[in-house]
Design a protein that fits this description.
The protein is α+β, with helices and mostly antiparallel strands. It has 4 helices and 10 strands. Strands 3-4-5-6-10-9-8-7 form an 8-stranded antiparallel sheet. A two-stranded antiparallel ribbon has the order 1-2. The radius of gyration is 18 Å and the shape is globular. It starts with a helix and ends in a 6-residue tail after the last strand.
Length: 179
């Protein structure tokens, strides 16, 4: 009995790719749909922040101290966690009076510019493959893509400066937004 190690390595690679694909499908399939509210990782951007906080922590996110001004901290919670196998920082925004969740942002930070573009393209493909997008507006000058999903908007951005490099995805629910 001979074992073909090249075949085993290819099988392991295929399993990893399939697992990543299924994870992307699970997270993004409900981004835009016929629902009344946009969803972030399967959680509707709706309801009280305390309920949302509990649900996002069930998905493995850990709440961290707010690092912005006291005024911003009154309407946002911050987390660290994983999104599409990337270590990310997340912020969840909610209305000041009723504490209704209306927006979520994930950001992935990089030291190497190559990973910046690769991640941007990976997220773009996932959104376009799995979200039910009604309209797309591309701003190449700002490296941003705007997706209108009926219940809300998704904005994919790629940012690079002197001391930072990151890719972000912003989810905005139209129904609860204070704007």
């Amino acid at each position: 009995l001979m074992i073909n190690f090249k075949s085993c390595a290819r099988h392991e690679f295929r399993v990893k790719v399939m697992r990543t694909f299924l994870l992307m499908l699970f997270m993004l399939v409900s981004l835009c749909g016929q629902a009344q509210h946009l969803k972030f990782m399967g959680i509707p951007l709706d309801g009280n922040i305390e309920k949302f906080d509990s649900l996002i922590q069930e998905k493995g996110f850990v709440r961290k101290q707010n690092y912005h001004t006291a005024e911003v901290s009154k309407t946002s919670y911050y987390y660290k966690g994983a999104f599409m196998e990337d270590s990310v920082e997340a912020s969840i925004a909610f209305t000041p009076k009723k504490h209704l969740v209306y927006s979520a942002r994930i950001a992935v930070y990089f030291d190497d510019a190559r990973f910046l573009q690769q991640t941007f393209l990976r997220y773009q493909k996932a959104i376009e493959a799995f979200a039910q997008v009604e309209d797309v507006d591309v701003d190449l000058v700002k490296d941003m893509i705007f997706y209108d999903c009926g219940a809300g908007n998704i904005v994919l951005g790629c940012f690079e400066g002197k001391n930072y490099r990151f890719v972000s995805i912003d989810f905005f629910d139209k129904k609860n937004s204070p704007r």
